[in-house]
Each structure stands twice: as C-alpha cells, then as structure tokens.
Amino acid sequence: MMPSALGRRSSWASSFVTSLVGWISFSIIVPLAVGYSGPPWPLLLIAIVMAILQVLVLRSAFFFLRMDRGLRVGALWGGLTGALLIWVGERFFPLLRERPFLWLGNGVYIGLAVGAFLSYFYGDDREIEVSAQQRGRSPQYGRDAHWLEPFAFGALAYLIAFLPRSPGLAVYVFVVGAFSGVFAAGSSHFSPDRWKNSTLMLPLILAVGSLLGVVSSLLFRQFAGEFRGHFLLLGSIAGFLTYLSTFLRGRSLAKREART
Fold this sequence. Notes:
By secondary structure, this protein is an all-alpha fold. It has two domains: 4-142, no CATH class; 148-259, no CATH class. The protein has eleven helices and no strands. It has helices at residues 4-7, 12-33, 41-60, 71-89, 94-98, 100-134, 149-162, 167-187, 193-196, 201-217, 231-259.
C-alpha cells in the first residue's frame, strides 16, 4: 500500500517526488541520447538540486502565482523557473556549461512538465475531495493513488533484463526503466478498462512494449560491451516485462474498482 502522503498527488511529498522524477529522468536520458558516457553522479547531483529548489519555489508561491487556476499557468511558471535554475546553476555546475543550450532547453522542458503536473494534480485532487465531501465520505483517490507503481515496475524489469555490472550503469538502467514504466502506464493504469479484458489487447501491447524497449535500449549503445547480451535484445526483453507487469497490475486495479 502506498503511503497516504504519496497516494494524494497534490501533497508536498508527491510534489517532491514528481519533480525528482522529471529532473532525474531527463537529466539522465538527454545526456545519454547525445552520447554521454561519463558517470551518472554529477548528473544526479544536478537533477536533485534542481528538483528540490523548483518545488520549494513553486509550492511556496503556488497560490500567489495562481497555479491553482489551471495546467497552462503551472506550465508557464514551471518553464520559467526551470530555465532560471539552469542559468543560475551554470555558475555552480561546470557540466552545464559544456552544452549550455542543450541544458537550457532541457531545463525549460522539465520545468514545463513539473509545473503542469503540480497544477493538474492540485485540480484533480480537489475535484475528488469536493465530490467526497458532498457525499459525506472520505476522499478515495482510487487508481490515481497508484501513480508511482509503473515507475517501480519499469525500473525492476530493466534491471532484471540488463543485469548491469557496475553501480553507475545500474543507475542508468534504473532511470531509463522507470521512465519507460510511465509510457507503460498509459496502456495499463490509465487506459479504458474494456481494453484490459480484451483478448487481442494484451499481445498487441506486449509487442509495442518490446519495440519501445528496443528503442529505449539505444540510450545504452555507448555501454554495449558491458552487458551480457546484445543491448537491443535485452531492451526488447525489458520492454516486454515492463508492459506485462504494468498491464496485469492495471487489470487488477480495474477489477478491484469494479467490485466497489
């Protein structure tokens, strides 16, 4: 069972997790995409500092910035603060100065997503809570309370498939796998429930998942010699496992909701 603070997506705890997921994912994935083969620790430090600072700013000024008014407002302030953090961060992190425009664009994109999600989660949770109050019940966040599960499924599936031999490579595999779980969640946790009981949908989703696993494995091309098998094959297995586990979990949650 997910802790209640994280099950409620607009809590401070969930806001920090949302920001950490966004900053860590793209601070790892974008450098890997352009061929970065150094250790992940400097990237992780940058991501964690940026994520914490952005949440502190946006949550502290949430209503002053009118981020409760909607997703677009949240995205605007998220993008602006993301760009500002990268600009200031160049003075403290030499790595940001190596590709300044790439990092600036990355900061804007991550910030947009973080700000948009903070606003969306706030509005969505308020609707659930107001509806529960009108019915005289405690808020039940249902399937949305399990929003972090796909990250865990993806990370575990990729670690099992790739079996990284070093801590640094394990970090890369973990992050890419966790982010792949986000895409898998679209077909599992948040897809129409009729899909989950379709005979044809599961093999179709597994085929798509395997293909996307192959695509994601290209991020590891510079580490090809460190794996026990060809990285494209391992990516296919990782994608298959990710989509299988998330789909089955989504079907289980749908059945549970149907009984209540």
